[in-house]
Design a protein that fits this description.
It is a single chain. By secondary structure, the protein is mainly alpha-helical. Among the domains are: 50 residues, no CATH class; 59 residues, Arc Repressor Mutant, subunit A (Orthogonal Bundle), CATH 1.10.10.10. The chain has eight helices and two strands. A two-stranded antiparallel sheet has the order 1-2. Strand 1 and strand 2 form a beta hairpin. Helix 6 packs across helix 8 and helix 7 crosses helix 8. The radius of gyration is 26 Å and the shape is flat. The protein starts with 13 loop residues before the first strand and ends with a helix.
Length: 178
């Protein structure tokens, strides 16, 4: 899902970005001369159309409260226009403001966090709290805090094999209780 057009200086070639993050570049003359400058231009025009539609359709309608805020701002700033990008742009979350980053992953992540995290994370916390103390310690250190089995064994004062068993039992406990 694209929200930004390709810079006009970079339109001599076409770069397709796969969902996996891989890229494939096409240039005139590639594929035994089957890739032409007109084809590259056509591909960019399709992207431009996608950008237009994404920007047009992804902006939710303003709420009554937002409309009131805009009216107040316009009253305080006569003769000035409110920015057309009233809702926060996804580009704000991109580290490189000039990138043509695929925002579908970001949108999926935002959706997942806002809808799933609330009840899933709360239930997971409850299940972890029900675990036996040593199991909980090992699981949290290895799976959540990122400690290695060796580091966890040293901190808990037990063997690496014991930490492995504790983590395995903790995962089984989660599957059983969740």
């Amino acid at each position: 899902m694209k929200f930004r057009k390709t810079n006009y200086n970079n339109r001599t070639t076409y770069t397709y970005k796969f969902a996996t993050g891989e890229k494939s570049a096409l240039a005139p003359g590639d594929a035994d001369g089957k890739i032409t400058a007109d084809l590259i231009k056509y591909l960019h025009s399709l992207d431009d159309s996608e950008v237009y539609n994404n920007r047009k359709n992804c902006k939710p309608p303003l709420s009554d409260e937002e409309k009131d805020i805009i009216r107040e701002w316009e009253a305080a700033h006569p003769g000035e226009e409110v920015s057309k990008n009233w809702t926060m742009s996804l580009d704000a979350f991109s580290e490189d403001a000039d990138s043509d980053m695929d925002h579908s992953d970001l949108m999926r992540e935002v959706y997942n966090r806002s809808h799933a995290e609330n009840h899933v994370a709360a239930r997971l916390r409850e299940v972890i709290d029900e675990m036996p103390y040593k199991q909980r310690q090992a699981f949290v250190m290895v799976e959540l805090d990122g400690y290695s089995m060796t580091e966890t064994a040293d901190k808990l004062g037990c063997s690496i094999a014991n930490v492995s068993k504790l983590v395995t039992r903790a995962k089984a406990f989660i599957w059983e209780k969740y």
